[in-house]
Structure formats: structure tokens, C-alpha cells
């Protein structure tokens, strides 16, 4: 029962933090939505802050797991591996829609918690992407170029749809929770990788595919 | 005197919202920092929310003004015009560092205010960039491609350094408030435009320049 109760509280909290913001959410509200006694929030998480931090950490741990390249993909080209990681991270964020926005939003704050999470999880994310890009540059699949801005741009493009989904909805009628979204977005990122990283022109086939969607 | 007082309050509020967040900032605190009577905040802005909304609007109005292409630049190529707008928007955000982060952060919220600001200011921003890109595609300077994701990516890249400056500082030792930052970043964006939009390989000169910085 304890695991299920914990999950219920986490789910309720993620939904409330997402809609009401951290400051607009009370422990009482979380307990009500999860249908548990208010004392349990303190008991399991040490209060609202503890619950919030646990949600952040859990999301980022899952995010790093989603970056893992399996043995089958590892046999493919570096370009394919990069695309596979990108697709996996987009799916992960889509599956954790509420948490994703909450975490990305919180990461723009300048707090002790954020600095800690950056220097662990986001440093690991940076490291993994850097390895992949350097390998691609070394073997000649990617053009040599200053790697820092490519990494920053890459992370920006992967997180963009999930930190500000309503921008895409309001101005572009794109729903980032729909399955088609990831397919279209990955196609755009593929042509970005091909032209900016690999230095090749998008093929005619790609262009036609892009038009159809 | 009234104009100077108003400005003092706005400056104090922008700084406090930036460091403490909206919820962590009180009207009393703003009045203290601006060295004015607390009643003046209500008098001039109708309270904290009114002051906050005025700061948001003011930032976005200046942002759109920074997109204006002057007559001299209008004589240049579409690529040059796009680069000039990008540089201008980066400088504007750098000059309004506190406000920029506050606004970009707030724009990730799903509120009535945000929807209003999106459907006016951000719709105008999208429109202006779209005009520029369509002209470039029509005259053949830019490759034809689905325009929505290019626009989204472009906005993402322009705002990224100023919505999460501490990410660039912590993990890349890049200070987005330094003058050199914009030069380096514009060089990166130039090579993005050349390879992704114009479909040309970065020249050797560009590469050498990128290395030096």
C-alpha cells in the first residue's frame, strides 16, 4: 500500500504544480487530490518542498535513462545514434508532460537545488552528448566546429516543445502531446543534423516527406 | 518627479522579481528598495500584479521595436537583415537582463495574461520573422522548407541564453552579460543560417574566426 500511496501523492502533486505552480499549491490540496491524510505528505516526503525535489530528481533520473543507447543502436552510425537519443528524450518528455514543464521551468531559477541538479544530471547529459558529437567529428560523420554552442542548441531544441507547449499550441496549432508531433519534430531535427552537423543537403525524399506531414 | 519615481519602482521590482521570484517579492520590499512610500505602488500600478504586468508589456514592446529594420539595413540582403534583427534582439535582452529572464520564464505559464501577450506581441514577432523568411525563400536566398519549425527554432535560439543564463554559466562558463558573448553566439547562428537556411557550407574564413573566439 505504501508504494501506491506515494505514487498517488506524486501524481497529484505533479498535476497541481503544473496547473497552479509551486507557490499556488498547498499540502492540503495535494492530500485532497490524492485522497490521503494530510500528515502522510510530511511522513513520506518531509513536506511540499521534499515532494517537489523528489519529483525533480525522479524526472531527471528517468531523463538520463532515456539517453541510454542499447546494443542494437550502438551498431548503427553516430548520426543514427544521435537521432535515436533525441527521439527517446522527446518521447520521455511527452510521457511525463506535466513533470517536464515543471522541471524545465524550475531549472531557469537560480537556487541551490537547481545548481545541484545542474552539476549532476545536466552535466551528465552534456557529457553524453559531447561524447557522441566528438566521436562523430573524429570519424568524419560530423563537421568539425566549436562544440559548446552545438551542445547548447541541441539541448535547447530537445527541451523547447516541453517547457513552453502552449506557445506552440497558441501560435502554431501544434499539440506536443500528440504522437504525430514527435515524428514531425524529429524530421525537422534530422534535417538540422544533416545540414548543420553533417554538412549535407537534405535529400529530395526528405523534403517530400516534410511536405506531406 | 513622477516619471523618475515610477522608474525607480520598476527597476526595484524587476531586480526583486528576478532574484526572489514573483511570489517571493512583496510590495513592501519593492517600496523599500525604491525608497518610496508603499502607497505609491498601488497609486501608480494598482499593486504588485499591475506593476508586474506593466514590466512584461514594456519589455515586449521594446523587444518588438528592436526587431525594426532601418532603411540602411533594408538595402542589404535578406540574410543580412535576418542577422541584423537577431543581433539586435540579443543586445536588447542583454541590456534588459533581469526583465528578459522574468518575461521568458513567465511566458511558460498557462495564464490569461500570457495568452494575451502571446496573441499580440509574440504573434507580431512570429509575423515579422515569417515575412523575412518567406521573402528569402521566394528570392532563392533561403532553401524552401516547412516554415513553422524554422520559426520555432529561431525564436528558441534567440531567447535561450536569456531565459536560462545560469545553465550557460554553470556548465559552459559562458557569461551572457559579457559583450563577447553576443559576438560568439551570432557567429554560431550565422553558420546555422548558412547551412540550414541558405544550404551553403561555412567558409574556411568563418571556421577560422569561430576558432579564434
TrEMBL record, chains A, B:
GO molecular function, a single term: DNA binding
Record's keyword terms, sorted: DNA-binding
InterPro entries named among the record's database cross-references: DNA-bd_HTH_TetR-type_CS, Homeodomain-like_sf, HTH-type_TetR-like_transc_reg, HTH_TetR, Tet_transcr_reg_TetR-rel_C_sf
HTH tetR-type domain span: 3-63
Residue stretches spanning the membrane: none
DNA-binding region: 26-45
Highest taxon in the source lineage: Bacteria
Protein name, as recorded: Forespore capture DNA-binding protein RefZ
Lineage: Bacteria, Bacillati, Bacillota, Bacilli, Bacillales
Gene from which this protein is expressed: refZ
Amino acid at each position: 500500500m505504501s508504494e501506491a500511496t506515494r505514487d498517488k501523492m506524486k501524481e497529484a502533486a505533479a498535476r497541481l504544480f503544473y496547473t497552479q505552480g509551486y507557490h499556488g499549491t498547498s499540502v492540503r490540496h495535494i492530500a485532497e487530490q490524492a485522497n490521503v491524510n494530510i500528515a502522510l505528505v510530511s511522513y513520506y516526503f518531509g513536506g511540499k518542498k521534499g515532494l517537489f525535489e523528489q519529483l525533480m530528481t525522479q524526472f531527471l533520473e528517468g531523463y538520463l535513462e532515456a539517453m541510454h543507447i542499447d546494443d542494437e543502436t550502438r551498431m548503427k552510425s553516430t548520426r543514427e545514434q544521435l537521432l535515436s537519443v533525441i527521439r527517446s528524450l522527446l518521447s520521455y518528455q511527452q510521457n511525463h508532460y506535466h513533470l517536464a514543464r515543471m522541471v524545465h521551468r524550475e531549472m531557469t531559477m537560480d537556487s541551490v537545488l537547481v545548481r545541484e541538479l545542474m552539476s549532476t544530471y545536466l552535466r551528465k547529459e552534456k557529457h553524453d552528448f559531447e561524447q557522441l558529437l566528438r566521436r562523430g567529428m573524429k570519424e568524419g560523420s560530423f563537421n568539425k566546429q566549436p562544440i559548446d554552442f552545438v551542445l547548447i542548441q541541441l539541448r535547447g531544441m530537445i527541451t523547447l516543445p516541453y517547457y513552453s507547449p502552449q506557445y506552440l499550441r497558441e501560435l502554431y496549432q501544434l499539440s506536443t502531446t500528440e504522437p504525430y508531433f514527435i515524428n514531425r519534430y524529429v524530421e525537422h531535427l534530422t534535417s538540422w543534423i544533416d545540414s548543420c552537423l553533417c554538412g549535407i543537403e537534405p535529400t529530395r525524399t526528405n523534403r517530400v516527406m516534410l511536405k506531406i506531414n
